[in-house]
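idk why but the lab printer keeps eating my pages so im just putting this in chat instead. protein + DQA:
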Amino acid sequence: MPKILVLNGPNLNLLGTREPEIYGHTTLQDINDRIGKRAAEAGIAVDFLQSNHEGVLVDAVQAANHKYDYIIFNAAAFTHYSIALRDAIAAIEVPVIEVHLSNIHQREEFRHTSVLAPVAMGQICGLGAESYMAALEAIICKLKG
Ligand code: DQA
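predcted complex ->
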């Protein structure tokens, strides 16, 4: 059975109440439930991890190597400056799809840069929770070959 890892970075545990005008009212649990349901339908096993700590996310990316087929990763603010996470993604063979709820290219200039994008398989942003679902659909297609 194919396996994917859904990783979420800092402050995404607060989704639902955090800046709802930007991120909406959907909680991380709601998003994970939707992913889990669609993945189960498609016969894919899925693990979830959210952390506010860069080192925990680096450890999770490293540990994912040879264990998962794909990673869906919203690194949140770390997207914009974590060379440690970029290097971890570059060091593993598992393809990473970078996702964001908001359209980072429409927001403050410091959010326009993703240091992860050059080492990610692709980036999906601006679709709210559907950014994660679109990443999952892409994975389902790719797994079918
Ligand atoms: C985010 C965008 C980031 O700029 C921000 O720091 C986040 C969430 C998003 O999903 O839109 O925490 O990754």
